[in-house]
């Protein structure tokens, strides 16, 4: 059924570009629900162009303040010696393109539109210590390294597939994808120049029992604490009763 709906949308998008729109894009889903058995999900992004072109898709997740610590060896023991807080760091970031980004756009354009992890700007929080340029570069590289290790930052060149004027790609959201609001930006480029772009929202939210527990913990923390204590006491009593019987 989903494949049928996507096929119908592709026909509609193709018709729209024929009517004069340079770029039309859509997604198979605009929301992801996190349940107890959530193991990650792929979302299909598809669209059509009005002629030969390049397509770059940039996905940004919710912003967060991120603390990066640097370890130093003291007396033969590795210890956290310095920490820096960065403000408004995307919790998730992904880029997909039909060709290598360096072949599609200039460095100036990629910097302007943050196309690629190397061009992300991580501003320092107000309470962070002053850093030299070299230290700042080192800490920013640590952010990229840690996020890529956790599968939350990635770039997949040549993952946008064209069939005539129609294109498609998959956006991968791992099991640890953070909850919140995402932005999916699709760029259409020709000769290294952006000729059109579209932005689509996407949300990731907890659902079912996980949503209920999350809301209770945040909206009524006192009640949540009481319930947690009661459950812990009941579990302890049941365990003790089971041991007495044996």
Give the arrangement of secondary structure elements.
Blueprint: H1 2-18, E1 23-27, E2 31-34, E3 40-49, E4 54-60, E5 63-74, E6 77-90, E7 93-97, H2 101-104, H3 107-113, H4 133-149, E8 153-157, E9 161-163, E10 166-174, E11 180-190, E12 193-206, H5 209-219, H6 221-245
Parallel strand pairs: 2-12, 7-8
Antiparallel strand pairs: 1-3, 3-10, 4-7, 4-11, 5-6, 9-10, 11-12
Mean pLDDT: 83
The structure class reads: alpha+beta
* Helical residues, percent: 25-40%
Cα-based radius of gyration, to the nearest Å: 23 Å
- The global form is globular
CATH topology call of the largest domain: Immunoglobulin-like
The count of helical stretches stands at 6
Secondary structure tally: strands: 12
What is the number of independent domains?
2
The end-to-end span amounts to: 55 Å
Q: What's the arrangement of strands in the largest beta sheet?
A: 2-12-11-4-7-8
* CATH class value of the largest domain: Mainly Beta
Largest sheet: 6 strands, mixed
What fraction of the residues are assigned to beta strands by DSSP?
Answer: 35-45%
- If classified by CATH, what would the architecture of the largest domain be? Sandwich
The topology string of helices and strands comes to: HEEEEEEEHHHEEEEEHH
Uncertain runs with pLDDT below 50, 5 residues or more? none
Describe the 3D structure.
The protein has 246 residues and is of the alpha+beta class. It folds into 2 domains: 2-206, Immunoglobulin-like; 208-246, no CATH class. 33% of the residues lie in helices and 40% in strands. It has 6 helices and 12 strands. It has helices at residues 2-18, 101-104, 107-113, 133-149, 209-219, 221-245, and strands at 23-27, 31-34, 40-49, 54-60, 63-74, 77-90, 93-97, 153-157, 161-163, 166-174, 180-190, 193-206. The chain has a 6-stranded mixed sheet. The longest helix is centred in the last third of the chain and has 25 residues, at 221-245. The termini are far apart. 22% of the residues are buried.
